[in-house]
Amino acid sequence: MAERANATGRAIELALALICPLAAGATDLAPPAASTGAAAKPAAVVPDENFFRHPSVLRAELSPTGRHVAITAVRDDSRASLLVVDLQQTAEPARVLASYKKLDVVDFHWVNDERLLYSLGQLEPGKIRGHAPGLFSVDVGGKQHVELICSEVKSCRQQPGTLDLSHHLLFVPVPQAGVKPNEVVLGQARGGQYHVAPMWLDTRSGIVRRMDMPAAPDGAAAWWFDPRGEPRLAMSVDEGRASYHWLAPGATSWRRIAEFDVLQEPFRPVAVAGDGRLYVTHQRGEAREAVLTTFDFDTLAPATRPIVQVPGFDFEGMLVPGEPGAGIVGLHLDADAGVSVWFDEAMKRFQEAVDKRLPGRVNLIQCRRCGQADMVALVQSYADRDPGRLLLYRAATQRWENVAVVLDGIDPRKMAGVDFQRIKARDGRDLPVWLTLPQGVPAGQAAPAVVLVHGGPWMRGGSWRWAPMEQFLASRGYLVIAPDFRGSTGYGEAHWRAGFKQWGQAMQDDVADALLWARKQGLASDRACIAGASYGGYATLMGLVRHPDLYRCGVAWVAVADPFLFLEGSSWVLDDIGRWGRRHMLPEMVGDVDKDAAMLTAVSPVAQAERIRAPLLLAYGEDDLRVPLTHGTRLREALIKAGHPPEWIVYPNEGHGWQHLSTRVDFAQRVEAFLQRHLRDPAQ
């Protein structure tokens, strides 16, 4: 078992310093400062490390009845610990349930009001090796620890009664009548298949029992459960085809309700509610935007009437369940900013009251007995200039109590505002662009710009919230332009598919068009640098190839540099990209190494290295398995051969992204100095 620290001394100090006593008679808090668009003259420069340290609070969740709140918390960039506060024992401080010397509690789940599950990881990986997340249970008193799934690879077989690493937590049922109070749903990978069949796990004893259900569909790879933990939907995969199978209550066999190519999903499951409804998203309209609806089992298709539709955006969010056996009471989604939609009238009124109390912010409500006279609510309140804070409200006393600030050392008054625009790309495509606007720039004066390209690339990059790299760059006086270029998700399937086989081509033009638009608006000066990580690093390199007149410099880290290596892999280079994805998805989304060889060569930074002439800062992680260091060394060798060597840094004990605070700060300082030389120096 992983070595657990004594829950005294330093750990108790952590708990006491982080969480205020939640006294029933606590006075009302003054609302946090609202985000405004007014530009204030910045005071002293915020230290680099303030932007990149770990949040003080990773996650907080109320127990099923709302009696307790559990928090994963970090103090002084030490390890993340699991804490719990008993809201009925207001005189007692937070209790440390799990704290480790070399590992972090990275995730947790309430099983019931008396027991939690948690898993381990490393926010800052040290030289320790051979640990897996594992699965542990602990009672709220912090005394009954049980290792359910082995976490230490080398000793996994030496721990009798502990499940091996092939097991994974699948679902935690909602406590209710008829559900065994300490059982959760487990899956197991076996014979090349993932989650072959779910099973029940007793979190107190570690005993596993068979789940009473019909034989699972062949090739089952994903599962959806109702709140009781009963399997209702399974997805099976066979080569490049997939199917959804439904198991109705009381049914003796699975019913296939959809079959499709893996890149042609007719709908996407979201959740099975307590009333038995299957909630799904599916695409509608010219932009093929995802809307939320229920599934119609008579027509075997999503219902025609959407529950939520946000023009210009896909539905991306989470459902708020009602009481056991009931449907949902609301949902949270992310459009141009986070927003909550409530179907319960009492919760609508409460949301209005919270938003009035905390104006100009996104206020996400987590509640137990939602809308009732004895409701307990935990509110996460954040803004573009503020990483956020947590507040507790108990309807019985109608008082607000402070829980924690998410990230210490950030003064919202010194942070930059975030703006969202939709512009037109050169071919007329709608192009979402996020801007982080530096303070202290006189009205009407253009600022030097950093075009920051997100990774993925099949993800949504921007959102109206505080982001460390964007805020760091803006604090140094740079306008940050972050386009959600074609190929990004979140804006309709058409926008995503428009990026297929467009690496270094139309996707790259979108990035350039965002900068050209900002210049035309008078926001960006003629001094700009392009930057990004992973795919964003690739786009940085191709930006210097394709549009050398736009960018004075580039900053690329953990960047894909050789598309052929990315697409086909190498027996000499270890990576974590699966053969299934390389066979069934990447050829269509990026390119086929044989059929599209000429195109891939034209958009390969390694092959086109002689065209990269602008100053380039290039950084990689020595242990990166997603984009192995070989990408960087091949590019560096090609640039040296072309007579344009890059500034080069390899960080030991780092993977695909910087996990050490020391690395993040060192890299930020290098970026700051690099941009100063190439965007600020009058000689440039």
Structure commentary:
- The chain is α+β, with helices and mostly antiparallel strands and 684 residues long.
- Helices cover 18% and strands 32% of the residues.
- It contains 13 helices and 35 strands.
- Strands 28-29-31-30-32-33-34-35 form an eight-stranded mixed beta sheet, sandwiched between helices. A four-stranded antiparallel beta sheet has the order 1-2-3-4, covered by helices on one side. Strands 5-6-7-8 form a four-stranded antiparallel beta sheet, with no helix packed on it.
- Strand 34, helix 12 and strand 35 (647-651) form a beta-alpha-beta unit.
- Helix 6 (506-520) packs across helix 7.
- The longest helix is centred in the C-terminal third of the chain and has 20 residues, at 661-680.
- The chain is globular.
- The model is unreliable at 6-42 (pLDDT under 50).
Estimated helix fraction: 10-25%
Shape: globular
From the alpha carbons, calculate the radius of gyration and give it in angstroms: 26 Å
Average per-residue pLDDT, rounded, comes to 90
Number of helices: 13
Number of strands: 35
Biggest sheet: strand arrangement: 28-29-31-30-32-33-34-35
Backbone structural class: alpha+beta
Q: Main β-sheet: number of strands, strand sense, barrel status? A: 8 strands, mixed
| pLDDT < 50 runs, ≥5 residues | 6-42
How far apart the termini lie comes to 57 Å
Instruction: Kindly estimate the percentage of residues that lie in beta strands according to DSSP.
Output: 25-35%
